[in-house]
Amino acid sequence: MKLAVNYSTALQKLIQTEKVKVDLLKCPEWYGLVQPALSIGQVYIHFEIALGVNNVQRLNFDLIKRMIDLTDTKFINTHLSNAAQPAGQSKNQILANWEADLAFLREQLPGMPFIAENLPWHDFLPQLELASDPELISEFLVRNDVGLLLDLSHAQITAAMTGLDYRDYVARLPLDRLEELHITGIRDYNGSMTDHFEMQEHDWPIAEWAASQIRSGAWKEPEIVAFEYGGVGDVFCWRTEESALLEQVPRLYQLFGERP
Predict the structure, then answer these.
(1) Which of 23, 92, 131, 255 sits most deeply, having the most CB atoms within 10 A of its CB?
(2) What is the pLDDT of residue 38?
(3) What's the CA gap between 54 and 50, in Å, rounded?
(4) Backbone angles phi, psi at 67, to 5 degrees
(5) Which residues face 80 on adjacent strands?
(6) CA 41 to CA 23: how far, in whole Å?
């Protein structure tokens, strides 16, 4: 099990001055990020690939293959999404769309193992209500031999929407297929539960619970636990604080970092 953190210039500074330690740097498939990240540590790619939104045929597979070779990324990650509004839509239709997209991806990337990530259902993302159903996700993963990328923050947001305890939601997923775990802080932003923030006080017991589930063997030990905080660009740079990384990355490393 290795701790990964989103690559950012703030994180790079802390690593180079030996103030924090990480096992992996998590990057999108952008050369402008991957090249500087490789200069300071091992990198893996988190691809922007979504199933169920009718766009896998437009992906740049030459770029994907180059990134795999450049970083030795082990898994091709996907996001379990949905292009349609839920009215009149069935779970079987979503499942069929996911499976058709996965079959196409496997044709383009033969021999690569795939993992799939649960997305959060918000009021402003009604199309994800069915796509975030844990039984549907489980059926897809098991039926198609796909690994689980459990985004714990997404699970919490979806559970809150459905009135479930997040632990009950997570328990409905096939945790024996867990390959990667994502953790972020959650706080209210413009009236909605929003992830990709620094860890809040209420987030630590949840991270500690996840670590205990892994250490006890209740969950399969994932290859990677990623702290999805920080980054570059308009989406992430405004919520990347060096002080938060300095305080929180070592604490997360104690929970999830690679052991000798």
Answers:
(1) 131
(2) 97
(3) 9
(4) -70, -40
(5) 51
(6) 8
Q: What is the largest CA-CA distance in the chain?
A: 56
Long-range contacts made by residues 72-76, C-beta under 8 angstroms, separation at least 24? 72/44, 73/44, 73/45, 74/44, 74/113, 74/223, 75/112, 75/113, 75/114, 75/115, 75/147, 75/179, 75/180, 75/223, 76/47, 76/49, 76/105, 76/109, 76/112, 76/113, 76/114, 76/115
Residues 63-76 have pLDDT tens digits of: 999 999 999 999 99
What is the number of structural domains in the chain? 1
In residues, how long is the chain? 260
- Extended strands (E) in 19-175: 24-27, 43-45, 50-51, 76-80, 114-117, 147-151
pTM above 0.85, yes or no: yes
Alpha helices, DSSP H only, in 29-85?
Answer: 31-38, 61-71
- Angle, nearest 10°, between helix axes 91-108 and 134-143? 40
Nearest to 5 by CA among 32, 31, 40: 40
The answer to whether the beta carbons of residues 45 and 34 sit under 8 Å apart is yes
CATH number of the domain that residue 249 is part of: 3.20.20.150
Task: Taking residues 155-174, report their average pLDDT.
Answer: 96
Q: For the residues 15-35, what does the mean pLDDT come to?
A: 95
Q: How does pLDDT run across 108-137, given as a tens digit for each residue? A: 999 999 999 999 999 888 999 999 999 999
Among candidate residues 209, 195, 190, the one with its CA nearest the CA of residue 158:
195
* Terminal CA-CA length for the chain: 11
